[in-house]
């Protein structure tokens, strides 16, 4: 007779979940045991919960399907929350399976007891605690459906240990469910969008979610080609497909003034998978407005709608269904001369980025020149820090590489950001993932140095100590080797190019510490 | 004119908070700036929030006073939650200062927006969001009072950026407050406890919180001396003072059967700062009962009461006020022969543990022999994993060393546990903290291998992969050096003794990787 844990794992497999990023504990042991009966589920051990959740985010962004996590009670979920926050902002499908104490144990307020569902609800569109093993198959099916979307979302199922270990005599919830209905499209929204785009007034499409890659992006480019609308996307897209031959999409600037400048003169802004653009932070005395006065904003899709389908129908409606979309010309920078800086390092990345790369970008200030330098590189995906919670880059690369083993993964990560989730490197080594990590080592929280002026805060000597990562200097080559990942340090342009080439050429993980000054 | 941020920092200083463990971001820049005006506040930079919160826990355990943290919005608080969970279970005073978006920015649902207070409430006895800079001085005073207890607790103040940057024209809340009233003592509870302890029936005192060190512990020992009551303490005490010349206190066993055995025959269990003992986990078909049938449990103190004062009054009531308490004889093991194992490593620690050491114990299975091996060592404090959330050890050592720079800190940490909060080592190096860390490298989540039998889960080959930390092997010497901490690896008893001696002799941090097999 199967038990509840087996129902969970087999239910995940039946719903198409193929990977479990796990950091389990005692209360999850029956779930761990059930993995042995599920050869179609790949367990991937992570040595910190933030690695597991960030990996699930990366996997979901690259496949459109949820991976599961396996986490240990409230503290385990808590450790994974920052990267679940990023996944939530990315609209990534993720299914968390969080073990809990046996139900009869909860009243005892044992040391690990805490309010798991309160934690889960801060990041999850769907949260449920299981109470009966007979319902678990159905609980899991609901969780996967909630995660799948559209749009994708975080779903969290809390499984008490006694519900997991109980025998399942009969699946109470074994109702056959129809295939999850595909997101609908609002005809009215389509017609209105088509009308304003054909009006001749300045218009722009703002892409996000599923509109920044694949068929959605191609349809958006056709719409732009047929109507003259500009193609913009969110400042931090979950997955932007770009490079030579692909439609060029402008990312909205991070600074409010930059984003407002990009939208100046736009009379009609059509959101396709994106939210109304807002500043990342508020600053004293500064405008918090990005969308210009007199600009009408309308949403092509909305909750529950499939923005990819909507864009294809919009392309047909504006006569762009067969239009040749604008395509980015191929073009790479050369490996430059001069000192190794964020700017010259970006040129090196642009010169060497391989065809089909999955780029994970948590380079923050050191990444300022990367988008331009790689715009005409061979086609690739660009994954960004959607939610602003640091520590995303290394784990996201784990998930992307598990999802797409045939593609090179390039993680471009700031030194400060890398410190939050270092054990991701160990999982890269363990799983033999083809990830080349570049750590931009400027030995500072340089973003804070830049932000203080915008914030009107004149940080003095004591405060500036809190931006300093240089005392002592972190040695990322040693840190990588400690995790089983070969690594090298570059202090010259040639050295960086040589190490990056090596990392890209070798299978398995490699890390390059790229020593650069903070940008001025 | 001061601003809100200056009110926060000066308010903390005025309330006696001397250290701020910080991992700030843009929304905290005015708070960072205010540190420059507060030379009596020591900012300590941590490169991960879990380090900041664990350090605050260690500091609070060693001083009885709260340190503050400085964290970045919801994701920053989330990263710190596992160690705040441990602090909550330890009854440690901690004041979290969490920056948030400007109030007028919150409605925009910007990328970093999330439900901070929901997160805070899962670990905090006191949570408040500030809305007006004029009230901040009072908000901070309330936060510190709530944290101070008794018992100590986590208090979280959420400070929106615009409340921090606003000018404070007049302190609206500048009411002078009386000194925080000391916890009261229930006369009735004292009388009842004294009566049962003098009844001649088998009785035990179960110590926790402030009763396991200092005057509380000494009074408890006098009570035991005068009445014959046994002295027990919680399985995972926040800070147990022990060693030669100190009262020997038995820790309740981790396994339910062990703890139940220790309490067998006890007719009266008097709780002093402890909760009713319960099993850590529930197991299928096993009793969840630790306290024997027929044993009456009564609480000497309770919410808001000062257990140290209560114990001193109880000692006087039972005529033990002047009794000589039982004291542990001095005695150390010798450095043993044989292979390096968890057992022989414990003997080495026992042989070398210096006078006045602060021992942070997150050694888990490899620590099985440590309590016995160190029982007769020179007096020291023993800090344990109160909440079961892994990743406590390295950060706790940071806080303990900041709190007690004159004492050697010895962190005994399992390899799996060390991986959650490695950047604590960098802060140790940066601050020149005298911490000697021993990582017991058994290359396994060995606790799960032991728990599976108790759990009745027969984990197979696929599941057992999730207990394996040996592929690839972690190199903690490289990891430590990468963080700026000198380190060495021991594979023999002599080598371990030599490296531990070196670490204890040298000022500043040192790490010993102690390679041991998993316990059978």
From TrEMBL, chains A, B:
The keyword Transferase applies. One of its GO terms (molecular function) is flavin adenine dinucleotide binding. Its EC number is 2.2.1.6. InterPro entries: THDP-binding, Thiamin_PyroP_enz_TPP-bd_dom, TPP_enz, TPP_enzyme_TPP-bd. Signal peptide: none annotated. The keyword Transferase applies. Belongs to the TPP enzyme family. This is Acetolactate synthase large subunit. It comes from Streptomyces spectabilis.
